[in-house]
Specification:
Rossmann fold, 4-stranded parallel sheet, 10 strands, 10 helices, globular, about 300 residues, alpha/beta
Length: about 300
Amino acid sequence: MRRRDFCAASLIGALALSLAEPAPAQAPRLKAVATFSILGDFVQNVGGDRIELITLVGPGGDAHVYTPSPADARRVADAAIVFVNGLGFEGRMPRLVKASGGSPVVVEASKGIVLRKMEEEGHASDGSHADTQADPHVWQSVANARAMVANIRDAFVAADPAGRTAYEANAAAYDAKLAVLEADVRTTIARIPPERRRIITSHDAFGYFAAAYGVEFLAPQGVSTEAEASAMAVARIIRQIKAQAIPAVFIENISDPRLLARIADETGARIGGTLYSDALSGPADGAGTYIEMMRHNIRELASALAS
């Protein structure tokens, strides 16, 4: 009996001591900002539980026409690290960082990627003037997305060396998923007859996809949705659809569908589904992550072009 009483007393004493000792404080999470939803998905997959992430332009938002708010300035000022795509995609971001009054590390996720050069239609009435610029939509190639993830990993390790193991493990696990995705994209596109791999989209956002996977994309708008398509560009697209019997027109999730509906009416091209170019969808719409977005896009392409 005395032995049982002694054991019970010891257990109670140990329990009381453990309750009296405060739990070790958790290190605060690293405050991070990403400019738009696709980049935010990359950042969250690498940062995991070690970061507190805010994405400025959320699902369905168009970063081309993003206008910073005072709340965005405060978020940037509070951040330790800000991830941008770069290449002019977020035209107002440098001014936002400066105006915020903070001093975050700014990381250009597209750094080191081999860029696609493109001509952006100029303002001359005859359309003869064109400006050459880098296409910022680098994530449309899965290989480029993997390079962006590596850049994000390295930036987190530099900003938070104590989390190196976690960041490297998170990035490796996500990269393995991206490798499977890239193989699936190539397999799906290979099933589409080469002569049918031509489509129309709202603006020129799929150049890297085209170069990587062998699909020709034509667009009445240029690299940015800020500029309206000229009458000359629309007429050129209509002539090309008729001459090449281009089978499908796709509407993008960030674009006004009326222009492409008009083109489809005038040419008889089939309107395919929605393609996601510059932004993810909401969680319920099937393209809420980058991997879901790319799988959605290739399913839509295969459905419209396979026969």
